[in-house]
Task: structure prediction
Amino acid sequence: MAGHSKWNNIKNRKGAVDAARGKIFGEISKLIRIAVKEGKSDDPKFNPTLRTMLDKARAANMPKDKIQKALERGMGKSSTGNMIQEVIYEGFGPGGVAMLVVAMTDNVNRTAGEMKYAFSRNNGSLGSPGSAMYMFQRSQDGGYEATIKIDTPDNATKLQLEELMDAIREIEDVEDIYIATDLPETTEE
Result:
C-alpha cells in the first residue's frame, strides 16, 4: 500500500496549496511594486493605489516581510543593499516572434540565468542586445509598441508562445512582456 499514508496525502495537499498561495503572493507583490513606482511613495497615506494593494495583500494573508520586500523593491532598494535596476532582455519565441522582457532586478546575473532557462525550455532563444529592439519603439505610457509585426502561422505556435510568456511571467523580477505579433483567437482544427 505504498503511497497511501496520511503523511503523503497531507504533503501533496499542502504542496498544492502552497504553490497556489505563492503564485497569488507573487502577483500581489508585483502590483505593490507598480503602485509604489507610479505613486512615487511607499506611504499608503499619500498613495491610494498602494493602500488598495496593501488591503488586497492583507485579505490574502500575505506575510508582512513579503509586503515590506515588495515596498522596498518598488522604491528601488533591496534587502542586500544593492540598487534595483531596470534591465531589458531581448529574445525570440516560437515562430521567430520578437519579444522584449522588462525586469527590475538587484541581481542581473540571477535574472539573466532565469530568463535563459525560461526561453530555452519553451522553444525560444534569448537574443543579444539590439537583436529585437529595432522592432519596437517607446510608447507614450512608457512601454513598448511593435513597429514590425510577425504573423503567427498556426494554433500550435500560438500555444507555444503563450506557454513561453507564462514561464517568463513566473520569474519574480519580470515587470512587462512585449511581443511583435497579435495573438489570434484560438480556433478548433
